[in-house]
Amino acid sequence: MSEVKAYAAPKESADLKPLDIKRRAVTKDDVEIDIEYCGVCHSDIHTVQNDWGGSQYPVVPGHEIIGRVTSVGENVTNYKKGDLVGVGCMVDSCQTCDSCKEDLEQYCENGNTMTYNGEDKHLGGHTFGGYSEKIVVDTKFVLRIPENIDPKGAAPLLCAGITTWSPLAHWGVKKGDKVGVIGLGGLGHMGIKFAHALGAHTVMITTSPSKSEDAKKLGADEVLISKDDKEMEKHANSFDFLLNTVPVGHDTNPYIQLLKRDATMVLVGAIEPLDPIHGGGLVLKRKKVAGSLIGGIKETQEMLDFCGEHNITSDVEMIDMQDINKAFDRVKSSDVKYRFVIDMKSLKESK
Amino acid sequence: MSEVKAYAAPKESADLKPLDIKRRAVTKDDVEIDIEYCGVCHSDIHTVQNDWGGSQYPVVPGHEIIGRVTSVGENVTNYKKGDLVGVGCMVDSCQTCDSCKEDLEQYCENGNTMTYNGEDKHLGGHTFGGYSEKIVVDTKFVLRIPENIDPKGAAPLLCAGITTWSPLAHWGVKKGDKVGVIGLGGLGHMGIKFAHALGAHTVMITTSPSKSEDAKKLGADEVLISKDDKEMEKHANSFDFLLNTVPVGHDTNPYIQLLKRDATMVLVGAIEPLDPIHGGGLVLKRKKVAGSLIGGIKETQEMLDFCGEHNITSDVEMIDMQDINKAFDRVKSSDVKYRFVIDMKSLKESK
What we know:
Two copies of one chain form a homodimer.
Chain A: E1 2-8, E2 17-23, E3 30-40, H1 42-48, E4 65-72, E5 84-87, E6 90-92, H2 98-101, E7 113-114, E8 134-138, E9 143-144, H3 151-154, H4 160-170, E10 178-182, H5 186-197, E11 201-206, H6 212-218, E12 222-225, H7 229-234, E13 239-244, H8 253-256, E14 259-267, H9 279-283, E15 288-291, H10 297-310, E16 316-320, H11 324-332, E17 339-343, H12 345-348
Parallel strand pairs in A: 10-11, 10-13, 11-12, 13-14, 14-15, 16-17
Antiparallel strand pairs in A: 1-2, 3-4, 3-8, 3-17, 4-5, 5-9, 6-7
Helix pairs in contact in A: 4-5
């Protein structure tokens, strides 16, 4: 067991502060990682604020972790000291249920262990995330980061990336499909990059005309302003797939109108009640609304390999650990393009 | 052109009354049918009351039509005089769009012609349904009724039957699947019969414990009372498929909880706004909510053939044409097991 520096919210609604936490000693299946970068996800804020209930304090957030291996257990053959690796939203799962057997640990039927605020089965208490110097993780939950991509921009791939990749892959988005990405934030900007790289005709759907230029730079072929009824009407019944990244409850009916017969809109952002959906909008053309949660470890590695091949990373703004509370405020007001990443050197070198 | 007896609502909210209507002369692709039975569908009432807007008066309802062929056009080779046939919700479609080419005329992209209150492309004005002595229909929209099943009970197969069959078939419900049918009315009782005949473990999901006995007689293996939170909890995340036949907006969240990962609930009844769906309920196990509308002609014939093989018909209460207004009132108060069917002899023999 070792003591490492971290940043934590000591209690609900409080600012994050320096805190020393314990990491377990490396067991035979573990990989010890020196954290270099950690992305800032809106879930970090929700957990700190206890928005979803069940938060345990102190909360050490962070599940977009990039670092270098410093040590491995005796059973670990796929990683060695010095390897560039990542850790996402999960650090363990039962490995025995149907979901785990199908490489869908995010849907583990016995409850997986989240990277922070999960039950720590080694030390007791709850797990601590990546806003810290080091982490020790079972090798099955460690991802390999392609050495050719910028590791800073790779951090958000571990959550924002896989959250948008998984539905595009699961629903089989392919070259020539007309794909809409609703909402341009941390998730949406990754959705555009992926849909574009998969060869889809990619349409950014946003309420804000001001986002058009950025959307096109990110890879959107078209921008559809959802407040423009005439434009929305023109695109009615034309989309093969919609990726809805809006992070709050909203009226999804105008988007459902955009779907082709038999097409699906997948929610990845709104983990709260949606405005009433009109049954007729689904019935009349056999349309579908679904949800999707992050992604399994196997598909996360596939996504990372795809990013290596296509040189895809997240657009990030680097911050020091000490600036985290300011960054949280800016995330809350959507004032970031498109993801904050903490340079963990700032934590390590602090007194 | 011929003049035939019918029953019609002369204007919104008025009772149905006798009326003479015109039927076109048999063209080369047409089949003329002497109507023997016509089912009473809740849509008939919605159209008479103009609940969905766009009703044109007089409304002659009826799209669950059973009769015998009296005459066929020169191009018609698949039917001959005396054949037992049916007509459902559609009498024409464009035949050229992708949906029509895929045998999904119900989703015709250029707008199909509904059996009543559609645009009559032959005579002008709007189409008249099955509450009448005769109908003339393009042979492509005429169905063959197996001679071994009771033609009275076959009438509702043309709408209630195909509406529940189509999603079960499209989503591939099979032997051993755990299938829930929500709501026990005209649609629900067909859903149970079909799911049971397909070999699924069929669960009737209802708010009314009083419906348990009937549900089991219809083929349900189990009855789940949706108001019983403990029972609902026991069945959480266990259903492969849910067929939701509830005809009005309602809270679907408790049903979504019942779905397994990746499973779908299909709406076939509620063509109106649902209570707010919680995004988290979909996201956490990649669940899906979809809609489905009646069915194509090809799959309607498949359903009828299946009914012939398994001796499946609807449970019906026979009425005379003159009792239609009383029957409407009873449908509105769900006082029918499970579908009214009009014996058209009563119309023909009336003065």
